[in-house]
Each structure stands twice: as structure tokens, then as C-alpha cells.
Fold this protein.
Amino acid sequence: MNKKILLVAGDPLSINTEIIFKAWKSLSKKIKKNVILIGNFNLINKQFKVLKYKIPTVKLNDLGDKNYYNKLKIIDVPLKFTNPFKIPLKTSSEYIIKSLTLAHNLAVRQDIQGFANCPIDKIHLKKTKKVGVTEFLASKCKVPKNSEVMLIHNKNFSVVPLTTHIRIKNVAKTLNQKFIKNKVLSLNKNFKKLFKEKPKIGILGLNPHNSELQKKSEEKQVLIPVIRYLKDNKVNISGPLVSDTLFIDDYKRYDVIVGMYHDQVLTPFKTLYKFDAINITLGLKYIRVSPDHGTAINLIKKNKANSSSLINCIKFLYKLGK
């Protein structure tokens, strides 16, 4: 029997209620019986009502409650609100952190197969001093420094940004040899553990045309020595590759392309695959995934949100438990 799959409702000011509804309607009965939502019971039902969505729901106290096969099961997280689509920033942030912490605690106890969190605006984690959910959960898991990895994945291909949600001006300052070694070694180890195969990795340079490999370039001073070290440690890695032409066709030679910063790899990946991707955090004590998109507040109440990535997250977790 499959372990439970947790779904964290995430940011209340977002398209999350819409994609939860659309995902739920599309899932098979076998998968539905294993899905439990973490969020505020009243908020989710009020938002459903405003959006004119009809799903039978039931409030649970914990994972051990009776299994309601045809109802969306919700473990209630306290939240005070008046308008379900106008919740103060501080209140929303506290709610989100409580929800993520509850999912983390259940996952650490290994009571679940894994969890998927719906999109969350990074501003809500400001109080935690973490730049994103990846880093927040890595801190909770006490992951060794710079060993958490953001893997954007589908069945055909994956990409990894070494730096995630930091300003471009800070990227080069962050990319020292130790940082890159830790990230790629963690990627290699955890990819093999999760997918049962050693990945073929391509790593991009930082600068246009890799700065022609000039003596003082980051490619020459930082990347090439790291790549040599990784090869000596049995990592199947090639590079530094040139990013402006790689995604025309050559990317198909690799299982994973590692980029220096977020948009260097996510922009071409999303151009190629649209919503056919999930975000997997490697290096945690459990499996955590999330949709590969943001909160899309411009689409709230418009019934135009695409739920494909959330559906893929849930199905990915379900297949892992089979």
C-alpha cells in the first residue's frame, strides 16, 4: 500500500486553490485516496466557494484519521482571516511557515511518501532569513552547507542552477571552487539514489563564449579546476559548455545541465518544455517537490491557471511509492 502524499496549500494569495481543484479533478481514485492537503480548512473552502468550485472536503486531525476516499482530506493549520483573498502579509507568512514546518515534521518521521508544496512568494520567508523554500527546508534538515540542489526535472531531461534566487551581481562572488564541488557532488550522489542511475552531467560556463577561456576568466580560474577534480572523483561531467548554443540540440546528450544561475538554465528549459516539469529538492532527508512556476497573482479568479506541473508532482510522488 502506498504511503500518504502531502500537498501543502502554500501561498493563500495565488492560483494555488485553482490548481489544487484542477489537479484533484484529474487524479484517479487510487491516487486521491493517498493525497492529504495541509492548509486552513475554512480558507480553502471559502476560496472554493468564491471560485465556484465544488469538491467534498473533510477535516483531519492527523495522518491516522479514517481514509475518506472521495473527499479532499485537509489537515487544518490555524489561520484567522476575514476576506479569503485579502490576508495581511504577516498573517500569510506565519501560516505558510507553519504549513511547511508541519509537512517537514511529518516527512522526517517518514510517515509519508513525500510532499509537494504549491507555489510560495519568497517574501513570506524573509523572517526565516532564507531566500526560498529549498533553502528553508535544507536548514530544517540540517543539510551540509551548499549541498541542497534544485533539480528541475521531467522524464526526458533536467537542469540545475547552482545559485538560485540571488541577484545577478552576486552570482560570480558566490561561485568559488568549494561551492561548485559541493553542489555537483550532491547532485551526482542524490540523482543516482533517486533515479537509480548515474547522471551524465554537462556544466555551463558563466560568461558569454566562456570569455574565450582567457587567463583571468571564471572559467579558467574556477570552473576548469573543479571539473578536473570532479572527473578524478568519478563524476561523469563535461564542460565548461557554451550556453548560447547548447540548447539548440547538444543538450540532448546529457541527463542534467548545470548552470551558474537561475535563468541561464530555467529560461531555455521552460521554452522547450513549458509546464512539463517539476522542481525536486535533492539532499534533504525526504522527497520534496513543487510546481515549476510561481504564484501568478495576475491570474487569481480568472480560471486560466495551468495545473499540469502540480499534477506531475503528485504523480511523481505516487510512482515512487509503488
